[in-house]
């Protein structure tokens, strides 16, 4: 009954698929695109060095069709924003030495320009008086097209990112490769007659990411992260081996972007409880032991966060450990977190510690001051029992962070010894590996790592509602991400 009650609370809350898509996309391009909008005294954008690098690699014209309905019906605020869009497009044209060709259209009702907008996937909007207008972009390169169907001032801080990403999508011969490592069947699972495991569909998260990226599954016992992977997504590294932590360590030091979801209480990963003589189960746990120590941060694996301000439910169904975050808990000065809106974190953990020398911590999501860590044994309790003895810390605790700066290896003594190998065999294997690939001790340039203290937020159970409508599988996000 307790499990059912918790799942009902999950279903009443929204999902977080777009958050992860934004995190992965931003971390992929962050090495190429510095996400900043420099609004000077004429509202003229200065393109980032990364965007200029991408434009400098264009070997054929890219057409950007700018659809904007000019007329009195368009709200004044949108007219001002449209002028800023036109300014940044002119910057793209200049920075690309003419290889980005800007074509402007005024899609009035029943015009050829309106037909062109609809064919390009740019969507019409309605004013308060019911008049239709268009404000969007279509990007074309050879036979490939991408659209920004609706441009709004709400995403102005991401305007350069959106345009550059669209240009990268249509000009890239192949999709960027993102590695996915997990102890959970995020990529789906086939039928296993030996263990009687039933097949499962890939998580909606994976299906969404496949639209923009080529996903490559990386096993949890991997000894090396392939060189073609620029972003590594680690979801619940339960029982991760030292050799795999070393592989991730070297991946980050050579410039790879890491996004990791760890958890002191992964509710949707029920594991056999070896300490229970009656054969019960318990929620799985995951962390990075060596990496976290080297980075100067930690997470208490014996506690989850209870927050009375962001608690879900009410009365006897109040669940303080099922956090429903809003903009008050999100970093509105951060280009990623400011776009999330709301966020569900079930039984999550908080990060603590002081980042190691050379690293800077940016908090992306945090608790309220009316929160405290609670023991795992009361994590799923609701109502009055869940608040008994509640003593808030009086300070905000980080739930998701980004570390940036110069990273140093978590293995200063060298590559860890292979598990289970004989001493002589270990020595020979280590010598061969060191000759083939010397250890990196420090990142050559500044890098970034994103860490989130929860895994359940990514599961279909917590993130989406999947329905069958007229034989079609329809996925509906449960919040406003």
Q: Helix and strand layout, with pairings?
A:
Elements: H1 2-11, H2 17-29, H3 49-56, E1 62-68, H4 76-95, E2 100-105, H5 112-119, E3 124-126, E4 132-141, E5 144-148, H6 159-171, E6 177-182, H7 204-209, E7 214-217, E8 231-235, H8 242-253, E9 257-261, E10 263-272, E11 281-286, H9 289-295, E12 298-299, E13 303-307, E14 311-312, E15 319-325, E16 343-346, E17 351-352, E18 359-366, E19 371-375, H10 384-387, E20 398-405, H11 423-436, E21 447-452, H12 460-463, E22 464-469, E23 472-477
Parallel strand pairs: 1-2, 6-7, 6-8, 8-9, 9-21
Antiparallel strand pairs: 1-4, 3-4, 4-5, 10-11, 12-17, 13-19, 14-15, 15-16, 18-20, 20-21, 22-23
Would you identify the regions where 5 or more consecutive residues have pLDDT less than 50?
Answer: 7-16, 34-44
Helix fraction?
10-25%
Distance between the termini: 30 Å
Total DSSP E strands: 23
What overall geometry do the principal axes of the alpha carbons give? globular
What's the mean pLDDT score? 85
Descriptive report:
It is a single chain. The chain has helices at 2-11, 17-29, 49-56, 76-95, 112-119, 159-171, 204-209, 242-253, 289-295, 384-387, 423-436, 460-463, and strands at residues 62-68, 100-105, 124-126, 132-141, 144-148, 177-182, 214-217, 231-235, 257-261, 263-272, 281-286, 298-299, 303-307, 311-312, 319-325, 343-346, 351-352, 359-366, 371-375, 398-405, 447-452, 464-469, 472-477. Residues 7-16 and 34-44 have low confidence and may be disordered. The protein is α+β, with helices and mostly antiparallel strands and 481 residues long. Helix 4 links the parallel strand 1 and strand 2.
